[in-house]
Design a protein that fits this description.
140 residues, elongated, two-stranded antiparallel ribbon, 6 strands, alpha+beta, Gyrase A, domain 2, 2 domains, Arc Repressor Mutant, subunit A
């Protein structure tokens, strides 16, 4: 299992007070040696914040909008989110307002949102933000 998939689960299941604790936990879980700077960037990407002295994931927004699909392009720099008619603007505004790391902006039509990204890591953060889980980029 990739460390980026393990990280959100670790944060949800434990009470980490420092990024060093997260680095050590990831090493135990994956056998990989990662540095604090890498973990710091990934925490920003997935929207983790220190709340009450403990790292927590931001809850997925309750947009009340059914998302039909989430498709990452082959180049990894564009996501196409399909939703019910008339809801694309709601999704686009929520994404823009969240200021997610690696997300440059959105373009919304009636039932489709195009999201410009820095790459696949940002796509995974976007996926989690939308409440679609962290199973990696691709079709929902």
């Amino acid at each position: 299992m990739h460390w980026r998939t393990v990280l959100p689960n670790l944060i949800a299941d434990h009470r980490f007070q420092t990024q060093s604790e997260i680095v050590r936990a990831l090493e135990r879980e994956t056998g990989l040696q990662l540095n604090q700077a890498t973990i710091s960037r990934e925490l920003a990407t997935i929207g983790a914040q220190k709340i009450g002295g403990v790292y927590r994931l931001a809850p997925a927004p309750d947009l009340g909008v059914p998302i039909r699909s989430f498709q990452l392009t082959a180049a990894g720099c564009l996501v196409v989110v399909k939703t019910e008619p008339a809801f694309a603007n709601v999704i686009g505004q929520a994404i823009d307002g969240a200021r997610l790391a690696g997300v440059f902006g959105t373009l919304a039509g009636d039932d489709t949102v195009f999201v410009a990204l820095e790459g696949e890591t940002a796509a995974m953060g976007l996926r989690r933000f939308l409440g679609l889980g962290s199973e990696g980029p691709g079709r929902r």
